[in-house]
Amino acid sequence: MALDHEQYVELVLGCVERVPRGRVTTYGAIAEVVGQVAGGGGPRLVGSVMAQHGGPVPWWRVVRADGSLPPSHDVDARPYYLEEGTPLRATGNVDIKRAFWRPALTR
After folding, report:
1. Is the distance from CB of 56 to CB of 75 less than 8 angstroms?
2. Which of 6, 34, 68, 93 minimizes the number of CB atoms within 10 Å of its CB?
3. With contact defined as beta carbons under 8 Å apart, do 26 and 43 qualify?
4. Pairing of strands 62-63, 25-26
5. DSSP label at residue 25
6. What is the C-alpha separation between 27 and 50, in angstroms, rounded?
């Protein structure tokens, strides 16, 4: 089933909205789940969607596979992590092993 861009965006943002407080998921995990319906799309496409449309959703809960955010987001995300009790490593990155949440697609 091929989706248009707007439908893809809605699926990505829907996944992000379901990430629980204090937990994170990755661009790749979202791409995997949404790609099952969309028939493709990778982490970079998810990142593009988040950059263009992610402001209203909890964007700080989507990180790279190593638990980091793009450097431009790190300072803005840290207060959310502390407030939500997101597990962090000494480096300041999210402790992905303890905080990871696997998204599931619900339509």
Report:
1. no
2. 6
3. yes
4. parallel
5. E
6. 9
Q: In this structure, are residues 46 and 63 in contact, taking their beta carbons and an 8 Å threshold?
A: no
Cβ-based burial of 89 (10 A; exposed 0-12, middle 13-18, buried ≥19): middle
Q: Is 4 helix (H, G, I), strand (E, B) or coil?
A: coil
pLDDT in tens, the chain (107 residues): 567 889 999 999 999 999 999 999 999 999 999 988 877 789 999 999 999 999 999 999 999 999 988 777 878 999 999 999 999 999 889 999 999 999 987 65
CA dihedral 41→26→15→73, nearest 10 degrees, is -100
- Taking each helix axis from N to C end, the angle separating 5-17 and 27-38, rounded to the nearest 10 degrees, works out to 130
